[in-house]
Amino acid sequence: MIDTTPHDNNAHGPYTPEALARLVLSQAAADLARDAGTLVVTRNDADTGLGGRASEARQLVEHAEELLARAVVFERERGASWEDIARYLDLDPRAVEQRYAPELAHWSEALAEPCRFDEARRRYVRRLPFAAQDPDCTRRELDLWAHFHVTIRDLYAVGAGLRMTDPTRQETYPETEPDEMGGAVWKESDLRPFLGLLSGYINYPFDDTDWETVEIGLESTDDEDPEAWYSYPLSGPAHSLEVRAARDIEDGDMVSVVIKGATAADLRLRIDTLFAAFAN
């Protein structure tokens, strides 16, 4: 009987346990910020039962406790001792360890076995938080979230500080620049609608001639060779983009894509959504 699942091998990719724990912490912080924002609005107070807002505030406290647990796990992953953590929490180290050791143990077990079959062995259950299950997607989304809500100058406020197991994880892409966004179009036949939608975002009239040019340029590309990528410009009234694309040699039907020039937050959000839609 097979005891492994399709997600057991290479489950973490190039992300260290520390990086995964940091993404989980970042996601929890962003979620708490979103939830807290809803409590700012007063318009619906009359529709809320007496005591309802207190209930919402209590939920935020519970979410904050979860956030603290995520922070403790991250600190342990990056080498902090229980004494280090206790010093900032103004608690006894033994009390901190007793409180958060089960959280850390659960995290370590989930890292070692990200998926586990249920008791009936009919399906497997993911054990890691989503942020650690799909770190690439989470990193992109949190970079965009931070770009909207935290900083307008750092396009990689979340991803830039993550530690990777492989420093050359970008080796299949051209050197990443601050205004670049990368992803993949799962099927080459979907590349034209992908480019058509992208062009629509910047009001560029992408037509048959554009596609024929791209199709020819894509023929001799290799995503493992940065020099063999094909580049095509898309220029609209307000935005000019450079699209670089190359066929995935290991999966001949997939196309890796890098888009340069998207600096506006709303445009980057649209492009991120576009990548997510065409990745499957």
Q: What's the short story on this structure?
A:
With 280 residues, this protein is of the alpha+beta class.
Fold blueprint:
Layout: H1 17-38, H2 52-77, H3 82-89, H4 93-112, E1 115-117, E2 124-126, H5 130-133, H6 135-149, E3 180-185, H7 191-201, H8 208-218, E4 230-235, E5 240-247, E6 255-260, H9 265-278
Antiparallel strand pairs: 1-2, 3-6, 4-5, 5-6
Relevant terms:
280 residues, alpha+beta, 4-stranded antiparallel beta sheet, 6 strands
Tell me what you see in this structure.
This protein is an alpha+beta fold and 280 residues long. The chain is built from nine helices and six strands. It has helices at 17-38, 52-77, 82-89, 93-112, 130-133, 135-149, 191-201, 208-218, 265-278, and strands at 115-117, 124-126, 180-185, 230-235, 240-247, 255-260. The protein has a four-stranded antiparallel sheet, covered by helices on one side. It has a two-stranded antiparallel ribbon with strand order 1-2. Strand 5 and strand 6 (255-260) form a beta hairpin. Helix 3 (82-89) crosses helix 4 (93-112) and helix 6 (135-149) runs antiparallel to helix 9 (265-278). The longest helix is centred in the N-terminal third of the chain and has 26 residues, at 52-77.
Task: Profile the largest sheet.
Answer: 4 strands, antiparallel
**How much beta, percentage-wise?**
5-15%
- Helical stretch tally: 9
How far is the first residue's CA from the last residue's CA? 30 Å
